[in-house]
Amino acid sequence: MGENHMEELLYRFNLQLFAEEEKTEEATPKRREEARKKGQVVKSNELNAAVNLLSMMLLFTFGSEYLFNQCFSMVQGFLMDFINFPLAEGQILNILIRFSGDYIFITGPIFLAAMGAGLVINYLQVGFLTSSESLQVKGERLNPLEGLKRMLSRKALVELIKGILKITVISVITYLFIRENFQQLLETLFLGVEGSVGEIIFLFIALITRVAMVFLGLAVLDYIFQRYEFQRSLKMSRHEVKEEHRQFEGDPQLKARMKEKQREVTMNRIIQNVPKATLVITNPTELAVALEYHQDKSQAPVITAKGAGSIARKIKEIARENKVPVVENRPVARLLYRQSKVGQEIPVELYQAVAEILAMVFRMKKRKTR
């Protein structure tokens, strides 16, 4: 009975550990920044493909006549200039060079349009981002088991479904379009070269427009899905959030030791500097500022120590023990504490007020020496 009870407790304990490690917390800004540095961003390749297809559609819509004329001129020039000439040594290379130049001149706008559309849509999705993380060679990428896991993962299944869906959509749209315009396609056989080419280009643009619109709709859905998956992949467990917060804020014990060390340094400075001070200006109980002034060494008084609360009380205590004058002046003490740093001269705007206090202290010293 006791062993069964112990096993039940261990079982509940293990379940509790799993529950605690469940990633239910939204990603912190630091986690998002680290993911971006690694190249992990919200990005839909389907959206890139859809925009590229739309750019091609626009190019053919407004530039089909130009592309057709260039192709016609290239073929015409090839037939007129080269077919009737016998092939000589080195002439084939010249033909290929000329043909390649014409080909690049025709296809250049197409590649530029596709590249420009790709750059724009990538920038709109992820902004300007450079990361070498994906280029690094990692052991798990070479592990066959890890590769098999990726192949059988949820992401791979989604990509497979998307691929099948795209092929199905293209096939259905193409079939319906051909069935709808079959009679018109047959009529192009009797329109001559120019007429048939123009009609075929018109039908091709119409088909591409339909496919592009459907692809754009699928791409928007894919982007929403990719965003959801990205947010889910970045989620953190409560333990991870606490650990990150602890690392960001620092170890509490270490921070306590650092504060204690800073307090020790401050107290040592007070013990060394306050006995040499010319006077101490107080608030009278909350603040204390020790000033040292030697006319032959500095133009204005220098703050040698300052503090609030217990440190202020310690400054006044050391000052009285060493017979350093302690003067109560609330506004001056407050301004000196807020606007000045230890080791620096007092601000210019406080020269007059501090000079009056120093004059009063010097007069009191003279009276005592008489």
Distance between the termini: 96 Å
Radius of gyration: 41 Å
Structural class: mainly alpha
- Got a strand count? 4
SSE order, one letter for each helix or strand: HHHHHHHHHHHEEEHEHH
Overall description:
With 370 residues, the chain is mainly α. The protein folds into two domains: 207 residues, no CATH class; 110 residues, 3-Layer(aba) Sandwich (name from scop), CATH 3.40.1690.10. Helices cover 72% and strands 5% of the residues. A four-stranded mixed β-sheet has the order 3-2-1-4, sandwiched between helices. The longest helix is centred in the middle third of the chain and has 43 residues. It is elongated. It starts with a helix and ends with a helix.
Question: Short description, anyone?
Answer:
By secondary structure, this protein is mostly helical. The chain is built from 14 helices and 4 strands.
Describe the SSE topology.
Elements: H1 2-21, H2 29-37, H3 45-82, H4 91-126, H5 139-142, H6 144-151, H7 154-180, H8 182-187, H9 192-234, H10 238-249, H11 252-273, E1 279-282, E2 287-292, E3 302-308, H12 310-321, E4 326-328, H13 330-339, H14 351-369
Parallel strand pairs: 1-4
Antiparallel strand pairs: 1-2, 2-3
Helix pairs in contact: 3-4, 3-9, 7-9
